[in-house]
Structures are given as structure tokens and as C-alpha cells.
Amino acid sequence: MRQQINGHTRLCGLIGNPVEHTMSPAIHNTLAAGEGRNLVYVPFHVEKGHLKQAVEGAYGLNVLGLNVTVPYKGEVIPFLKEIDEMAEKIGAVNTLVRTSGGFKGYNTDMMGLYRAMCSEHIEIEGEEIILLGAGGAARAVAFMCASKGAKRVWLLNRTLDKAKEVAEEVNQQLETDCIMPLAMEDYKKLPKDRRYLAIQATSVGLYPKVDEVVITDADFYQRIHTGFDLIYKPLETRFMSLVRAAGGRAFHGLKMLLYQGIIAYELWNQVSVSEEEAMAVYGQMKQEMGIEDKEKGKRKNIILIGFMGSGKTSVGVRLSYRLRRTMIDTDKTIERQNQMTISQIFERLGEEEFRQMETRCLERLLEESENQILSMGGGLPLKEENRRLLKQLGTVVYFRVTAETICARLADDTTRPLLQGDNPQEKVRTLLDARSSIYESAADIIIDVDNKDFDTILDEIIEKVGEE
Ligand code: NAP
Asked: Which of 41, 172, 214, 310 lies at 20 to 30 Å from 96 by C-alpha?
């Protein structure tokens, strides 16, 4: 519960321009409420040319601490009494801590990213890293990687001169030679005999231009074992989808945002925030993002994916009944709209046309669908674009099933176009082998459905999705 504002209330805040879309109040006000601390956090929109007055005014008003965001992370430095050594090297400050006679500046972005990576068990020490971008955030990332013992950081940027500038500065400041600049278009020159941790620190792919990515070549992603995108809006970027499609692990930047805030809070209040408290705040942040998405009608759907015969339709119908939600089946929708069965569409128009129909169907659902059960055609998640749309639609549940179960269930089914011809059992095995990792990468939740009755499967879905 939030503390009552009274004569003892301490004030923290964010200065920047713009600040209207910040998530920071959710972080700090949740932490303060959780601790029962009498503190409030407020965003302040500071107009160009008013930064000095803003910092001095805040100090005069006994403000406990400030976060600083674009465009003032560098500009604020002359107005500080003191600056932390690493923040000075990075040349950017995002946190001001009240000290006697003025504010001291820190850079918690860099420490926040490190803490987020540690929490996901991502190693930096000894790693070969590809860093995409050479802007303000990438600079801090380059410092973090070099100072945490990366073996090599390949710094790729559209503007090569900027990559060279950042590389030279980080190498010089940290007395290393591990940062290697490269033009973005020269990514094929990266050594091919190794796999990389890739950190996406450009602004490409940020909402609303969610379809954009700096490198589209699928071969590039084959060389990435882990991808970390600093962007957190959307939570599933195209970069992340490409990493996953190539079999790697992928993470968004929301935890980096969380931990940079937590470190600032710890500096202001001289406390240590536990992982339990951190996760409570993380839940709050996700909820805020979820609410925003829900307002656009894009959330809270439960999406069922899996191989033909895995039970999407039969479980979906029962789930819709139990949760009192309507169910939509993409195959049936497409059949109805085209007045043809799937087999006829395959026969007359071809598979490619059918796959395009599926994408159009998802796009329409994204506009209209909310709080529904959506059962997807078996081949729908194979298309990368469709996997991205699925993530935006809601929680994706994959029904994992063995070839033996499918063969037993589909033994007498002659309506499946992909299973016509000789030796359908062999076809199922081959298709399942080819598809299972793609289904897994598309899923938020995996349910093993072999030998389980409907009630057990429904209970498992409801528990894991957190519904009812
Ligand atoms: P910035 O200083 O403006 O840098 C932008 C970078 O993106 C530059 O490297 C720029 O390349 C590149 N870029 C922009 N448009 C491009 C295009 N069309 N093609 C290729 N490259 C392009 O921004 P920043 O402050 O570093 O922020 C970068 C991203 O990190 C933002 O999306 C921000 O939201 C995110 N971020 C997240 C957190 C977090 O807590 N999760 C914290 C900080 C930042 P050029 O040099 O060639 O222009």
C-alpha cells in the first residue's frame, strides 16, 4: 500500500525530455510501497535549456535522487558535484545521488544490464560478443563487456566512424584492445568458426516499427547462441525471433530496465533489494505493459499450437467452455472465408497461398481478438512472421506430442493434405523432427500431452497461464 504523503515524504524523480512514457515510477513506487518507505517518485519533463536550473532546483528542494534520461545523460555532467569513476569513463550518467553540497552521478544502465544478464545466467567473461550499435547505450554496453572480461567485442554500427570512435575510447580507457569496430554491412567478415553472444543496442525494432531489424540474413543468426535485445517495447522483437528461429536463446531489455532502477533505488536509500522484491517489481512492470497491450485488444488470448492431431481443437473447445471464452480455429476460419476445405485450398491454390492466408488471419486477430482461445493450424508457426504475430496476440501454449501418439490418432484420417501418399507414419516422424524446435521456440508454455486426459491437460494449462 502506498504511504500517505506528509511532512516526512522524500522525493525522487526522473528528468528528461520526453518522460511521459517512462516505466520508472512503477519500479520505485512499488519498491517504496513494498518496504513501507515514505518516498514518492515522479517524472519531470525538463525543457531544453533548463537542465541546470532543474538539477540545482532539485537539490535546493531537498530531492533525494534523480534518474536522468535522453537527451541529458551527457549534458548533466557539468552540473554535478562529483561523478563515479566508471560513469565518467562512459561519459553518461543516468542516476544522481544527493551528497553534501550537490549530486553525485552514476551510470546504473551498465550495472543493470550486467545484473539482468547474471539473472539469466548469461556469461560475459571469456565470451566472443557481437554488439550491434554505437549510440549512448551501446557505449555503456561496450564498457560493461570489456570491464567484465569479454574475450572480444565486435562492435558493428551503420556509421563505421562512430563504431571506431567508441572502440578507441573504450579500449583506451580500460587499457585493452578487445573492442573491434566493424561496419554493420560487413557482418559476413566476422570469424565463422565460433558462436557468439549478440547484444542488440540499436534503436531499430523499437515500437511502433516492430518489423525492423538491423540484419535480416538468417545465416547471421545461425552463429548466435544467445541474443539480448536492449529494447523492451515490444517484449518480442524481430531480432529475438530471428535468434530463436535459428535455435538460440533470446532475451528482451525489460530486466535491464528493472535492475538499473533497483540499483538507483539502492544508492538513494542505502538498502539492498532482494531478488524476491525485484521479481515482485518485475511482475508489476509486466502487468503495466500487459494492461497497455490489453487496451489495444491484443492480450490475454490463449493460443494453442502444435502438430496436427496433438489435440488443439478438442482441448481448445473444452478450455473455452471451462474459461467461458469464445474459441477461434484458424483452419476453420480460412475454410469458411474461402468456401473451400484446407485440402481444396492446397490443391487449387497451393501451400504458399494458404500460408499467406494464415498470416492475414493472424493480422486480423491482432486487430480484433481479446480474451479468446485461439487454435492455430499445425504449420502456421513455421513462418517467422507468424511466430512474431503469435507473441503479440497472447500466451502461446505448445502441445508437445510423440510421433507414436499422432500416428495412432490420425490412422484413419484422410482429410490431412500433408499426410496423403505412401508411408504417412514416416512422414509424421520426419515432419515432427523438423518442427518440434520451431514450436518450442514459439511457445511461452509447453505441455506434454501424451497419455493425459482432457481434465489433466486443462488443469495444467490453466495453472501455467495463470487463469481462472
Ligand atoms: P542512440 O544513442 O540514438 O543510438 C542509436 C543507435 O541505433 C546507433 O548505433 C544508430 O546507428 C543505430 N540506428 C538507428 N537507426 C538505425 C537504422 N535505421 N539502421 C541501422 N542502425 C540504426 O540510442 P541509445 O540511447 O543508444 O538507445 C538504443 C536502444 O537501446 C533504444 O532502443 C533504447 O530504447 C534501448 N535502451 C534500453 C535500455 C533498457 O533499460 N532496457 C536502456 C537504454 C537504452 P548510427 O550510429 O549509424 O546512427
From this structure: 172
